[in-house]
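FAQ

Q: What does a record look like?
A: Structure on top, sequence underneath. For example:
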């Protein structure tokens, strides 16, 4: 098949206070799956936005099959068959439209001009066909806001390939996906390479995925390209990580042994009003890190939100130190010293229009108040501490969070609650989208929180993380707890069994 190439020549881009890209020479041809790697803030998304026509102020040149092209508007890129699925899924979807409308979005916009009637039968049919190609089963009449993160992602991929597509850019597509969904995506991606001869540029922080599926990779660091090479049998994750971080790095998350106290946070027979979680019985001791395991959709996020008062309950009891807590809304949870780092950070975890400084103080403003004035000195000190600890890449603590890279926004969301002085900390997928170095920092800080005698609940579908950081875990399936496991006595296979529906006697 004929190969098409896409190439950047000395592409640079500068934002106030940040040189996001410096003289990037990047080349890709169709028919390959290419990984783009780099620590948070390295410039991956910025470079891909240039190719997608969404960063019009770049300098330098882009060549399409050797000829210079101008990518100053998303339409310029789409015309050349360059499609992108962004990291922030929610910003790209029209939440109140149906799946069919979202998949066929560009088609609808193009056809709208001059027409009053839309042929919805055709739109639904074609949307169904595209989803079928991807082998995903979503009712095209559903409203997108009701979909899971993983399903929203699939809708966006369907939208991208519904259009002319030679270059498909996927910015962290697997971050919200479960293992089986990831496998499914990989099957689709391989299929698109083989039968459509597409180039797929794949951004991820999960290095084992790169080794599994990609033909070659590029590493970026500090707005520059460090290396581009094919992936062979000999390629190791260590060499990729070392290139990303610019130093030798051992990935290990040693569990710190800390003293575990008495039962403090106790949940009895808790049921969410609409049945999102059912009959939850669990407890966390002081100094203990308790995992919530289970697949995407198993109910972990729903449980976290219910504990935090974001969902209403129909029955059950939550108590701390023997005292019942009345949690009806999140403010009640905060008052009762419960903190939640939510999964969908852009929507819930951070105030993107506010500064890094403000966000890092937001969960604990009372700590920074003197005579009802917020002490600038104290918040700045707090912000600098966490920017340092979590290596948040930002030109200053006054930067608006909206301008940080995806992973750095996540670090702010985590840092905000680390700064809050709480008794119970609930983390929902806190390492999603953060690079390996920062992940280790987050683990270290969570260990510290436990060591200080607090209760920690840690929800993730990464079983390896549960095995390395928790003391004990509850496994969830279909909104219920199916098992309670001692971390030191369990393994991935056992977690998997209970994640897929097997139930321990005690929970039957
Ligand atoms: N619109 C913008 N205004 C100001 N700075 C920006 C803007 N977009 C990106 N940046 C900065 O450019 C740098 C590169 O960001 P980019 O989003 O490309 O990183 P990334 O490699 O995708 O990281 P991540 O893995 O966290 O998603 C970061 O320092 C970021 O804060
Ligand atoms: Mg990014």
């Amino acid at each position: 098949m004929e190969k098409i190439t896409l190439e950047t020549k000395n592409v640079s881009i500068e934002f106030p206070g940040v040189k996001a890209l410096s003289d990037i020479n990047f080349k890709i041809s169709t028919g390959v799956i290419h990984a783009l790697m780099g620590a948070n803030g390295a410039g991956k998304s910025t470079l891909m936005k240039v190719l997608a026509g969404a960063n019009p102020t770049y300098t330098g040149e882009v060549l399409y099959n050797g000829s210079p092209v101008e990518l100053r508007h998303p339409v310029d890129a789409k015309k050349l068959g360059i499609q992108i699925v962004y990291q922030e899924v929610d910003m790209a979807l029209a939440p109140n439209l149906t799946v069919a409308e979202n998949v066929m979005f560009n088609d609808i916009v193009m056809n709208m001009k001059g027409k009053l009637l839309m042929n919805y039968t055709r739109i639904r049919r074609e949307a169904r066909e595209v989803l079928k190609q991807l082998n995903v089963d979503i009712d095209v009449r559903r409203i997108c806001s009701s979909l899971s993160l993983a399903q929203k992602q699939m809708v966006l991929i369907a939208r991208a390939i519904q259009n002319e597509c030679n270059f498909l850019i996927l910015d962290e597509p697997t971050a919200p996906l479960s293992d089986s969904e990831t496998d499914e995506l990989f099957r689709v991606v391989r299929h698109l390479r083989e039968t459509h001869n597409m180039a797929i540029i794949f951004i991820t922080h999960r290095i084992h995925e790169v080794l599994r599926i990609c033909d070659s990779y590029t590493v970026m660091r500090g707005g520059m390209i460090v290396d581009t090479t094919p992936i062979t049998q000999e390629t190791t994750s260590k060499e990729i990580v070392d290139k990303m971080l610019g130093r030798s790095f051992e990935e290990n998350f040693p569990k710190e042994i800390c003293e575990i106290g008495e039962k403090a946070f106790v949940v009895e027979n808790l049921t969410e009003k609409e049945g999102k979680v059912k009959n939850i019985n669990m407890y966390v001791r002081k100094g203990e890190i308790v995992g919530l395991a289970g697949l995407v959709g198993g109910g972990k996020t729903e449980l976290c939100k219910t504990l935090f008062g974001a969902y209403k309950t129909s029955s059950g009891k939550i108590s701390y130190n023997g005292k019942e807590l009345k949690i009806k809304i999140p403010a009640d949870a905060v008052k009762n010293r419960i903190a939640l780092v939510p999964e969908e950070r852009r929507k819930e975890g951070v105030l993107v229009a506010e500064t890094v400084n403000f966000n890092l103080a937001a969960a604990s403003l009372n700590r920074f108040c003197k005579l009802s004035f917020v002490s600038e000195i104290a918040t700045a000190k707090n912000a600098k501490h966490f920017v340092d600890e979590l290596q948040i890449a930002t030109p200053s603590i006054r930067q608006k969070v909206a301008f940080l890279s995806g992973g750095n926004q996540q670090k702010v969301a985590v840092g905000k609650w680390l700064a809050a002085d709480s008794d119970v900390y609930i983390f929902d997928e806190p390492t999603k989208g953060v690079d390996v170095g920062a992940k280790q920092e987050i683990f270290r800080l969570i260990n510290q929180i436990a060591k200080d005698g607090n209760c920690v609940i840690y929800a993730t579908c990464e079983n390896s993380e549960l095995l390395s950081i928790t003391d004990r875990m509850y496994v969830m399936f279909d909104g219920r707890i199916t098992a309670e496991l001692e971390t030191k006595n369990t393994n991935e296979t056992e977690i998997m069994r209970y994640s897929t529906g097997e139930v321990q006697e005690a929970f039957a």
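Q: Is there anything notable about this one?
A: DSSP finds 19 helices and 22 strands in the chain.
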